[in-house]
Write a structure and sequence with these properties.
This protein is mostly helical. Helix content is 63%, strand content 1%. It has 16 helices and two strands. Helix 6 (149-157) runs antiparallel to helix 7 (162-187) and helix 7 crosses helix 11 (278-291).
């Protein structure tokens, strides 16, 4: 893969075309040093004030952000490519990630493997109106907001300015969703959670076989679609060669998919639950609302097991620590490649980010998670709701294809090339 600085924007906001070069950008050493100092201070603070799990999760978060940025590993763009022109390359990388994840999750969940002896459980959630509406909203939102939950975090770390707006309204939407969640879960119809492993009698071995078969079937369908539609291939990304590629070049999607699955399994064994993102957004927003005198503790979302998080420091929240790690890891990856640069914001892409962030935040709360917690974590945990989340998010993506041009956002065409 040739070296170049012709970098595609992280989301789909139009950016000036940069000149090609035979060399990579120089590392942005002042920014790298600043990022390392911030990371060291945060690590020392966590080691001094929190239990051992939090510093470990910060490291895992750093590696997640580093991986996401270097591979430009996307969920939003993968869904859009499939629905617009029939390109399933990125979606097949999802399937590989999920295949590795279920292979690792199966024994961990079956035997309760944990680094610290805590209980281990996956994400298995109910299937009902809340899930259907929330995932559909999220599918539309991520196409307007320019990224999914993980994409928003790593784009912020990479300096994509409009994604700061997406993140802010993601938090606001998630907080509103937490306030309304009791209505959607208590008053709307839903079935009990369904685990392919424990609800069907298959056990984890049988659920693993069924999952692998489903992934293979979906991959085959994407190949059939590609042979029929002959979509453009994904464009090559800038990259170094040899060992330098680890820190200064793009990673192949299959490599990133494997690394993300392994890191999710390590997260499960470290904190007793898979990787998640958006519950921290609800926590941050609720704490701000509480500061301004709003009685968020009375909301149904903050009753029961969630109550302790609202009364504790955000640094005691494992999802918060993971999120901070992802942002910092993406920042270090972007500066190592000399790619960190704040981008321009205009009225149209800012409006799209506001709407997209609100839809994603609200939808994630209704759907028991985002592309990470519900889709990745749900399917890896053998939960039926993870598959349904994916189908409804694809439906939302299809609708969003007709909305994106209203905000100056591109939609892939059959003769386009794209990254």
């Amino acid at each position: 893969m040739s070296s170049t600085t012709n970098v595609q924007p992280i989301n789909d906001v139009k950016a000036p075309v940069q000149q090609k070069s035979t060399t990579l950008n120089k590392p942005q050493m002042p920014l790298i040093i600043g990022g390392l100092i911030v990371g060291a201070i945060l690590m020392i603070y966590l080691m001094a004030t929190q239990n051992v799990v939090q510093p470990l999760l910060l490291v895992i978060g750093l590696l997640l952000g580093f991986t996401l940025f270097h591979a430009r590993f996307g969920f939003t763009s993968a869904f859009r490519r499939l629905m617009s022109v029939g390109n399933g390359q990125a979606l097949r990388s999802h399937l590989l990630m999920l295949a590795v994840a279920v292979t690792l999750f199966a024994p961990i969940l079956a035997f309760g493997y944990s680094f610290f002896g805590d209980d281990v459980s996956g994400y298995v959630s109910p299937v009902g109106v809340s899930l259907l509406v929330g995932a559909f909203m999220f599918g539309i939102g991520m196409q307007l907001g320019g990224g999914c939950a993980s994409g928003t975090l790593y784009a912020v770390g990479g300096g994509h300015s409009v994604m700061f707006i997406t993140l802010l309204f993601f938090i606001i939407g998630s907080t509103i969703g937490a306030h309304h969640l009791s209505f959607w879960t208590d008053d709307m119809p839903a079935f009990e959670p369904v685990s392919l492993a424990t609800s069907t009698g298959l056990g984890y071995a049988g659920a693993w076989i069924l999952s692998i078969a489903l992934f293979g079937l979906i991959a085959w369908i994407t190949l059939v679609v590609e042979r029929k539609k002959r979509p453009p291939k994904m464009a090559a990304k800038p990259s170094a060669t040899g060992w330098k590629r680890v820190v200064r070049g793009s990673w192949p999607l299959f490599a990133a998919a494997t690394v993300l699955a392994v890191l999710n399994a390590l997260t499960l064994m470290t904190r007793g639950a898979p990787w998640g993102i958006t519950s921290a957004f609800a926590l941050w927003g609720s704490k701000v609302a509480q500061f301004f005198g709003i009685d968020v503790a009375s909301w149904g979302y903050w009753q029961g097991t969630n109550a302790a998080a609202l009364e504790s420091s955000i640094f005691a929240d494992s999802t918060t620590v993971l999120n901070l790690g992802v942002i910092l890891g993406a920042f270090l990856a972007s500066t190592a490649g000399g790619l960190f640069k704040l981008s321009k914001v205009n009225g149209k892409n800012a409006t799209a980010s506001i709407i997209g962030g609100l839809l994603m935040g609200y939808g994630a709360r209704l759907a028991f998670g985002c592309n990470i917690g519900a889709y990745f974590g749900g399917i890896a945990s053998f939960s039926l709701h993870g598959y349904i989340w994916g189908v409804m998010a694809l439906a939302g993506t299809f609708i969003a294809l007709y909305l994106r041009p209203m905000f100056g956002l591109s939609v892939p065409k059959p003769k386009d090339s794209f990254c």
